[in-house]
């Protein structure tokens, strides 16, 4: 399936329809991430997403193929935005089609947990006090590590 | 003998550069023996801001779009990127 990196808002309904393709597998799962209005107690008025285009495309394509193999997906799709985003706008959308709900749901969680730490995007939050780069979270690395631990088993 | 160096996020901002060319010929290393650590050390001599930026903990190095350790060998025509931990999604 495929990856899209785009500046424009994600058309979630159109993405879902394309993923389902009129002939769904037994299970379709999706995740949509939005720009939050506050971060660690501070109000957020907007977000700028910097990315490394060539590497982001490569990392997300490999991630999708890995998810396909790991969870026996029939289809998958990853869409990630870059540029200036307003509060409540979409940031990321992932979708997976499989024969069983566990595979589809786990695939979405795996793709999200992995892209958070492995795909070259950097968030810069804007707020009343100015702008600041978002620091990486230990909790994101821990979620990523859970999948690596399962790979090692 | 040139390598493309790319900088992203806070490194790009602090150093005021997003992309520079680095000549491997300026290194003491023999051809085929220059690694990421050697290039980091050479760039760190560009000034205190470079030294601080390139030696920060958790700095990520990507060689030809793949995250690597500092022991990775860098060759002519390669693209080497430096950036802080990623925060997408």
In short:
The complex is a heterodimer of chains A (153) and B (89). Chain A is built from four helices and ten strands; from the N terminus they run E-H-E-E-E-E-H-E-E-E-H-E-E-H.
Topology of this structure?
The complex is a heterodimer of chains A (153) and B (89).
Chain A: E1 2-6, H1 12-20, E2 27-34, E3 38-39, E4 42-43, E5 46-51, H2 53-70, E6 75-81, E7 83-86, E8 90-98, H3 101-118, E9 121-127, E10 130-133, H4 138-152
Parallel strand pairs in A: 1-6
Antiparallel strand pairs in A: 2-8, 3-4, 5-7, 5-9, 6-8, 9-10
Helix pairs in contact in A: 2-3, 3-4
Chain B: E1 2-7, H1 9-15, E2 19-23, H2 36-43, H3 48-54, E3 60-63, E4 66-68, E5 79-83
Parallel strand pairs in B: 1-5
Antiparallel strand pairs in B: 1-2, 3-4, 3-5
Provide a descriptive summary of the structure in words.
- The complex is a heterodimer of chains A (153) and B (89).
- With 153 residues, chain A is of the alpha+beta class.
- Chain A has one domain (2-148): Molybdopterin biosynthesis MoaE subunit (Aldehyde Oxidoreductase, domain 3), CATH 3.90.1170.
- Chain A has four helices and ten strands.
- In chain A, the strands form three sheets. A four-stranded mixed sheet of chain A has the order 1-6-8-2, with helices on both faces.
- With 89 residues, chain B is an alpha+beta fold.
- Chain B has a single domain (2-83), classed as Beta-grasp domain (Ubiquitin-like (UB roll)), CATH 3.10.20.
- Helices cover 25% and strands 26% of the residues of chain B.
């Amino acid at each position: 399936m495929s990856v899209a990196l785009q500046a424009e808002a994600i058309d979630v309904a159109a993405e879902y329809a394309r993923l389902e393709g009129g002939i769904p597998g037994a299970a379709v799962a999706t995740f949509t991430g939005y720009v939050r209005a506050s971060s660690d107690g501070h109000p957020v008025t907007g977000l700028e997403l910097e990315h490394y285009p060539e590497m982001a495309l490569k990392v997300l394509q490999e991630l999708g193929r890995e998810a396909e193999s790991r969870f026996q997906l029939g289809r998958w799709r990853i869409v990630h935005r870059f540029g200036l985003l307003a509060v409540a706008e979409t940031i990321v959308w992932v979708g997976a089609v499989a024969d069983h709900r566990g595979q589809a749901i786990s695939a979405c969680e795996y793709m999200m947990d992995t892209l958070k730490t492995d795909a070259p995007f950097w968030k810069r939050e804007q707020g009343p006090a100015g702008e600041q780069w978002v620091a990486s979270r230990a909790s994101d690395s821990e979620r990523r590590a859970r999948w690596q631990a399962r790979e090692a088993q | 003998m040139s390598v493309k160096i790319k900088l992203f996020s806070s490194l790009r901002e602090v150093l005021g550069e997003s992309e520079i060319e680095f000549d491997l010929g300026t290194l003491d290393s023999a051809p085929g023996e220059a690694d990421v650590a050697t290039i980091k050390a050479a760039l760190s001599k560009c000034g205190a801001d470079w030294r601080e930026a390139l030696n920060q903990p958790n700095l990520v190095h990507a060689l030809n779009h793949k995250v690597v350790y500092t022991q990775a060998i860098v060759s002519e025509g390669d693209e080497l990127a430096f950036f802080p931990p990623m925060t997408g999604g």
